[in-house]
Specification:
This protein is of the alpha/beta class and 230 residues long. 40% of the residues lie in helices and 20% in strands. A 7-stranded mixed sheet has the order 3-2-1-4-5-7-6, sandwiched between helices. The radius of gyration is 17 Å and the shape is globular. The N and C termini lie far apart (33 Å).
């Protein structure tokens, strides 16, 4: 699967993604996520965070409001355009850059936190992303990744994706069907990769997103992977 194809897929969703996240600002989940990031900050050794796969900047803005110094990247230039506009309206200063998660161009030992959500399922080479995350994290820095075992499901224009045309959902299914990560059991696969790279305190949590959002922990949700650079 060529990365350009994946980039074009995200470009086509930029406007819808922004509208969806703008609506989210009025929902309780925004307050809950903000609280989560505020509670996370004191556990880090510094405030420098990189969000990878920022899309329209929803989490980048929340991180900024929570007190972090935020750099946010996305493969899609159109997503970054949308993100910049949203942050300007909110009067928040965020360093946005167009960048491939598999080619993160930052100096070693730069960030205290690498955060990503619903991004790694789209990567042709997730191991490369994890290796680069290790490199750019400072010692004791953390990686936090919220994602799902998307290879086990079929996307449709239902169940929370009503804004997305059916052809977009079909394209998402085509993308993930051609990715190596979809052929593996997650998050077990991710945990093994992270440990081989040298991360410590590598754990997954299938309940934490529901706890953050004050939902029933028995509901199906994303897993969180956390790992630390020694």
């Amino acid at each position: 699967m060529e990365i350009k194809y994946i980039e074009n897929y995200w470009d086509k969703q930029a406007t819808i993604w922004r509208e969806e996240k703008e609506d989210a600002w009025d929902l309780p989940e925004t307050k809950y996520w903000l609280q989560y990031f505020k509670q996370l900050l004191p556990t880090l050794s510094g405030k420098k965070v990189l969000e990878v796969g920022t899309a329209s900047g929803y989490f980048a803005n929340l991180l900024s409001l929570a007190g972090y110094q935020v750099t946010a990247v996305d493969l899609s230039s159109k997503m970054i355009e949308e993100a910049k506009e949203v942050s300007q309206k909110l009067k928040l200063s965020i360093d946005y850059q167009v960048m491939d998660a598999q080619n993160l161009d930052f100096e070693s030992n730069t960030f205290d936190l690498v955060f990503t959500r619903l991004m790694t399922w789209t990567l042709p080479d997730v191991n490369k992303f994890y290796q680069l995350s290790y490199n750019i994290l400072k010692p004791q820095g953390k990686l936090i990744n919220f994602d799902g075992d998307m290879g086990k499901i079929q996307f449709s224009s239902e169940e929370g994706h009503e804004r997305y045309p059916s052809e977009i959902m079909e394209e998402a299914n085509k993308i993930k069907a051609n990715l190596e990560i979809s052929k593996n059991d997650r998050p077990t696969y991710d945990l093994e990769l992270l440990k081989k790279i040298g991360f410590i305190n590598v754990v997954s949590d299938n309940k934490i997103q529901n706890e953050i959002l004050h939902k029933d922990i028995s509901e199906k949700t994303l897993f969180q992977i956390s790992a630390q650079k020694p």
